Design the sequence.
């Protein structure tokens, strides 16, 4: 009598719970997503550290975020229109090429000849310029990846695939800052930026392994009409609108990552490696949580869990703000990432479920506006508040404002509070 190999049983059970991982193009999608996020997070970590080192100005950190959020928001709606009417892999390839060229520009600024040729003000201004270009690219990259996701994954696997997609994003967010901290301490800023260039070049391999996809939106229409339809859809979908607003304001007020160079140098007194560890902590917590969610899906009362987790995120940020102990600060940032990971999966699944295929680019563009305004504008808000109130007060006040946003949304958005994935499937 033949016996089944226990390892094969385990493997088949793994793929039974994670059917999306049996799709080869989805694996290439995950590799591309991880690679780009890894490279950009490594680059961002180096830039924030570099700008603060040469300016010693908290407000300059805020301007890094502002330089990216202005084009990301300004171009997003129009980007969504063009993404819906373009081939998605080609659009992502163009964005990756743009990221590659801006990485070369930033590397050039860090070379010794640039330091001798240009003043600090000129170098910082050029950094802002390249970050601005990155913001334009982001407005096209986000909707393109979101649209491509829907073309490589069957609808019935969206929830599972979203967990893995979020995990690949968080994995890049974790490893990128850690590697950046090591490179800054070991090799220096210029060498770190050079490695970003090398890594971006390798990402073309998995991206081009994905086949060309059909353009679902065939009919042409005026840009403004197309943009208006995307906005109307979000505004007329209460669950989606409430989820996006909750995300935007909670991260806008509760973001503390932009001020980590200040905490590293003036409050926690740790070296560059400590800075990289702190910067990676939220992503590490999110990665652990997303790993669990891949095997323990969020099926029961996701709306209630969303509010609980955003509340946990806000409390973690408040405690981090007043902490002067490196271990406690690391743990609070870790917890903030764990809570945020749950809310990210819930929000992303809502977005995937309620969005029609032919409107994915435009709806994702609106989502990009919310995400950009919360993340990068949140960095600017943190820099301004820290310059005005002081670093610790700025973080604590931001966390308290986030608690207020959660309370208002909880009572004003019953559709989100009572949302279930099962109800959404019945409505379709």
Sequence:
């Amino acid at each position: 009598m033949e016996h089944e190999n226990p390892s094969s049983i385990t493997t088949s059970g793994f793929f039974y719970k994670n059917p999306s991982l049996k799709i080869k193009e989805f694996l290439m999608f995950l590799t591309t997503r991880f690679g780009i996020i890894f490279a950009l997070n490594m680059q961002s970590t180096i830039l924030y550290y570099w700008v603060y080192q040469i300016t010693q100005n908290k407000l300059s950190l805020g301007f890094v975020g502002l330089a990216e959020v202005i084009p990301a928001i300004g171009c997003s709606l129009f980007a969504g229109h063009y993404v819906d009417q373009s081939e998605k892999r080609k659009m992502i390839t163009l964005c990756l090429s743009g990221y590659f060229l801006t990485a070369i520009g930033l590397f050039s600024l860090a070379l010794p000849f640039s330091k001798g040729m240009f003043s600090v003000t000129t170098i910082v201004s050029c950094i802002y310029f390249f970050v601005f270009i990155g913001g334009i690219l982001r407005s096209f990259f986000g909707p393109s990846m979101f649209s491509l996701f829907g073309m490589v994954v069957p609808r019935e696997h969206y929830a599972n695939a979203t967990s893995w997609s979020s995990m690949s994003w968080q994995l890049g967010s974790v490893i990128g800052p850690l590697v950046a901290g090591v490179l800054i301490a070991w090799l220096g800023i210029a060498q770190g930026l050079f490695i970003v260039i090398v890594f971006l070049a390798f990402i073309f391999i998995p991206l081009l392994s994905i086949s060309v996809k059909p353009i679902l939106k065939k009919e042409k229409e005026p840009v403004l009409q197309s943009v208006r339809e995307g906005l109307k859809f979000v505004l007329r979908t209460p669950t989606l609108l409430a989820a996006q607003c909750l995300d935007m304001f909670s991260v806008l007020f509760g973001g503390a990552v932009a001020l980590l160079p200040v905490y590293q140098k003036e409050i926690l007194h740790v070296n560059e490696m400590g800075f990289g560890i702190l910067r990676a902590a939220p992503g590490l917590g999110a990665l652990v949580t997303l790993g669990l969610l891949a095997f323990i899906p969020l099926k029961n009362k996701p709306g209630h869990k969303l509010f609980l987790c955003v509340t946990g995120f806000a409390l973690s940020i408040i405690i981090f703000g007043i902490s002067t102990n490196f271990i406690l600060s690391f743990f609070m940032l870790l917890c903030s990432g764990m809570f945020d990971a749950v809310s990210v999966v819930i929000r992303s699944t809502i977005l995937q479920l309620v969005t029609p295929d032919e409107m994915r680019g435009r709806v994702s563009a609106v989502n990009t506006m919310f995400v950009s305004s919360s993340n990068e504008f949140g960095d600017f808000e943190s820099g301004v508040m820290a310059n005005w109130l002081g670093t610790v007060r700025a973080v604590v006040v931001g966390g308290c404002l986030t608690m207020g946003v959660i309370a208002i949304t909880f009572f004003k958005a019953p559709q989100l509070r009572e949302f279930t994935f099962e109800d959404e499937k019945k409505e379709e």
Remarks:
- Residues 1-10, 423-428 have pLDDT under 50 and may be disordered.
